[in-house]
Amino acid sequence: MPEFIELTPETEQSSVQEYGFGGGPPLPKADPCLTPRQLLMPKLYPIALTFVLYLYTYSLITPLQHASPVLNALLVLSQIYELPHLWKIVIHSMHEKLNHYNAVSVYEMATVYNAQSLQIQSLKVVMGKNGICGLWT
């Protein structure tokens, strides 16, 4: 029956000497800069690209990053990965891009992701488009 031992630096060294493994000097550790890495994201390419661009630049600078569907996806990612800075700049960008064409979808996203100021602003745009603007001014 095999024996189970607790693996500590002392027992590891004694087992190496006992069984003849590792007769030479310890192997150097791999350089993390040279180790290949992959980022697997179950998102569409434009969304993954804009998210990686945000991670590198810490801002939204490309026109692709300011498209409404991409902003919606970035808002979702900011909540999933708990990135408050991304959440703030996406909300700010959504405020800037708000118009009567996207007001309903922006209102929906603002409601789901608890952006009260954006929710109020988009509701004002929706009400203004439908001729009920007098209630909000």
CATH architecture: 2-Layer Sandwich
What is the string of helix and strand elements? HHHHHH
**Low-pLDDT residue spans:** 1-5
Please write the CATH class name: Alpha Beta
Overall helicity: 40-55%
Please give the radius of gyration in angstroms.
26 Å
Number of self-contained structural domains = 1
Q: Based on helices, strands and strand pairing, what is the structural class?
A: mainly alpha
Shape: elongated
User: Which band does the percent of strand residues land in?
Assistant: under 5%
Terminus-to-terminus distance: 83 Å
What does the average pLDDT come to?
79
Mind summarizing the main beta sheet?
Answer: none
Outline the structure in words.
The protein has 137 residues and is mainly α. The chain has one domain: 2-Layer Sandwich (Potassium Channel Kv1.1, Chain A). It has helices at 9-19, 45-57, 68-80, 84-97, 103-112, 116-129. Helix 5 (103-112) packs antiparallel against helix 6 (116-129). The radius of gyration is 26 Å and the shape is elongated. InterPro entries: SKP1/BTB/POZ_sf (IPR011333).
Quick take:
The chain has helices at 9-19, 45-57, 68-80, 84-97, 103-112, 116-129.
List its traits.
137 residues; mainly alpha; Potassium Channel Kv1.1, Chain A; SKP1/BTB/POZ_sf
Write the SSE topology.
Elements: H1 9-19, H2 45-57, H3 68-80, H4 84-97, H5 103-112, H6 116-129
